[in-house]
């Protein structure tokens, strides 16, 4: 029986489970026909369980207060213990699937066995659904989505021929090296090369941002080094002070969560429509979707009789190269940025312009590097301090917004065509609204996972998002490109540089 240490970052999420916010990543994959479940289980075992040891390992608590927890082989591992089978009641639509998924969102994964389970669901729109629940301690959401997609193929019968295709940058993730808008911050290579510096910056943030200045200037030997150190110090002080003093304003979307959660989503929209809107407004695909999300947050606050405020959300940033194979041990490699959704602005194009400005500002700031180091630094503080620190930063946001670029082309699961993908990151602290944005096979899907005590009517969010996106797409062809900053009541007037950055 083999045992290995849980990494410091993975240990954070292992320790962070609590009744009102579980550290479980939820994923949905819908298929157009009834799935041959025996065929699927063979693929699951071959491509996932046998490939990644953590799928067969359970967590052991630390042996002492200063020691890390461990992963150990589950000597009684049985794949069937991780499988649930279900049939949706008629008529087997989105409402029935949402009700099924929502009843499990407050159920912890047993620590006595590996921290995952898969639900094999029949009766959904004439086809099937794979609903997966995986603990955040195993890996980050992007890595786990890659694991789940590794069971799919580009042709219907590839799995029958023991295909060994690897998911690549182009055919699986829709990511092009020229297409940096798929991640809010294109920082993978920078973070990978700067891990030790990032950890130092994170520890500095814990100690107080102004202590960074003398630390950076001390080793500088040349004028160029000193100038670079000064810029890094200034940028980092500004960002770290923003992180330290940011707050989540009171609103109908904020509050102390309870255990009950609900998952909802709307109809997929053609990705091309959103790309065309981005092109015509001189913005990006991300800008348009996030602006529509901001409008939904404004509409929801207004429907509850509240004065609309900006809504802060955490956005995970992948730092693992998508064109490299996942390591067998998986693990977490991501940063976070704090994005304030401009829900306080009154018009759709004002929100789009301000979204574009804020997204560009984040892309050119050291925030992702700083939070990458901060997460790694928190991971060595011990479970009690970890909880305090994670709560301190998590409570600055209403929730987590994930942007998952799925496969550009059609994928097949055990012979059936995959028709849709969704997945939610867990919330922590007092976070109450998590949003999933997922593109796949020419479609864009958006879903919400909410705390039902704070947001008892999440269908309003779905309807408001759809209405806002439709309005942006309808108005874009007759509108000039937007610019920022703008006032709270007037749309932008000055054009941005030509050309979309989808």
Total count of domains: 2
What percentage of residues falls in helices of 4 or more residues?
25-40%
| Residues in β-strands, percent | 15-25%
Runs in which pLDDT lies below 50 for 5 or more consecutive residues are 163-199, 484-502
Q: Tally the helices.
A: 15
Q: Would you identify the CATH architecture of the largest domain?
A: 2-Layer Sandwich
* CATH homologous superfamily heading of the largest domain: Nonribosomal peptide synthetase, condensation domain
Radius of gyration: 22 Å
Shape: globular
Description:
Strand 13 and strand 14 (416-424) form a beta hairpin. The protein has 2 domains: 3-179, 2-Layer Sandwich (Chloramphenicol Acetyltransferase), CATH 3.30.559; 182-400 and 429-478, Nonribosomal peptide synthetase, condensation domain (Chloramphenicol Acetyltransferase, 2-Layer Sandwich), CATH 3.30.559. It is globular and about 60 Å long. It is of the alpha+beta class and 502 residues long. Helices cover 36% and strands 20% of the residues. Strands 8, 9, 10, 11, 12, 15 and 16 form a 7-stranded mixed sheet that branches. The chain has a 6-stranded mixed sheet with strand order 5-6-7-2-14-13, sandwiched between helices. A 3-stranded antiparallel sheet has the order 1-4-3, with no helix packed on it. The model is unreliable at 163-199 and 484-502 (pLDDT under 50). It has helices spanning 8-15, 37-49, 94-102, 141-149, 169-173, 188-193, 195-207, 212-217, 223-245, 271-281, 285-303, 348-363, 367-378, 383-394, 459-475, and strands spanning 3-5, 24-31, 57-60, 70-73, 83-87, 116-124, 127-135, 261-265, 269-270, 311-318, 334-341, 399-405, 412-413, 416-424, 433-440, 443-451.
């Amino acid at each position: 029986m083999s045992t290995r240490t849980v990494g410091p970052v993975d240990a954070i999420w292992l320790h962070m489970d609590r009744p009102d916010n579980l550290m479980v990543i939820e994923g949905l994959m819908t298929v157009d026909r009834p799935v041959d479940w025996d065929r699927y289980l063979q693929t699951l075992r071959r491509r996932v369980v046998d490939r990644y040891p953590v799928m067969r390992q359970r967590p052991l608590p630390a042996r002492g207060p200063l020691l890390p927890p461990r992963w150990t082989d589950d000597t009684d591992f049985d794949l069937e213990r991780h499988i649930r089978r279900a049939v949706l009641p008629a008529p087997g639509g989105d409402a029935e699937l949402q009700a099924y998924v929502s009843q499990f969102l407050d159920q912890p994964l047993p620590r006595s066995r590996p921290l995952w389970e898969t639900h094999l669901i029949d009766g959904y729109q004439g086809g099937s659904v794979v609903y997966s629940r995986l603990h955040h301690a195993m890996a980050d959401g992007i890595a786990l989505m890659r694991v789940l997609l590794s069971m799919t193929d580009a042709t219907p019968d590839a799995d029958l021929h023991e295909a060994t295709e690897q998911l690549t940058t182009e055919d699986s993730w829709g990511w092009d090296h020229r297409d940096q808008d798929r991640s809010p911050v294109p920082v993978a290579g920078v973070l990978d090369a700067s891990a030790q510096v990032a950890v130092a910056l994170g520890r500095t943030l814990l100690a107080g941002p102004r202590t960074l200045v003398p630390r950076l200037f001390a080793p500088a030997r040349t004028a160029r080094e000193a100038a670079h150190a000064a810029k890094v110090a200034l940028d980092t002080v500004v960002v770290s002070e923003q992180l330290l003093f940011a707050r989540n304003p009171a609103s109908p979307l904020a509050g102390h969560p309870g255990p009950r959660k609900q998952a909802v989503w709307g109809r997929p929209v053609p990705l091309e429509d959103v790309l065309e809107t981005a092109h015509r407004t001189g913005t990006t695909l991300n800008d348009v979707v996030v602006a529509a999300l901001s409008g939904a947050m404004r509409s929801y606050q207004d429907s509850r009789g509240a004065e609309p405020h900006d809504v802060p959300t955490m956005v995970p940033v992948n730092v693992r190269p998508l064109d490299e194979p996942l390591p067998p041990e998986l693990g977490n490699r991501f940063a976070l940025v704090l994005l304030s959704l401009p829900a306080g602005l009154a018009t759709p194009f004002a929100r789009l312009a301000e979204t574009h400005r804020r997204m560009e500002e984040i892309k050119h700031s050291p925030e992702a590097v700083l939070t990458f180091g901060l997460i790694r630094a928190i991971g060595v503080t011990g479970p009690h301090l970890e909880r305090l620190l994670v709560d301190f930063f998590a409570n600055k946001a209403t929730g987590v917004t994930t942007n998952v670029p799925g496969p550009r082309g059609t994928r097949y699961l055990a012979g059936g065509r995959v028709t849709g993908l969704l997945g939610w990151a867990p919330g922590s602290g007092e976070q109450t609204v998590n949003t999933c944005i997922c593109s796949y096979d020419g479609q864009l899907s958006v879903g919400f996972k909410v705390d039902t005590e704070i947001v008892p009517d999440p269908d309003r969010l779905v309807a408001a998002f759809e209405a806002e996106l439709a309005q942006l797409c309808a108005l874009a062809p007759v509108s000039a490109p937007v610019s920022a900053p703008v006032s709270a009541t007037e749309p932008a007037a000055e054009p941005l540089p030509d050309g979309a950055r989808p």
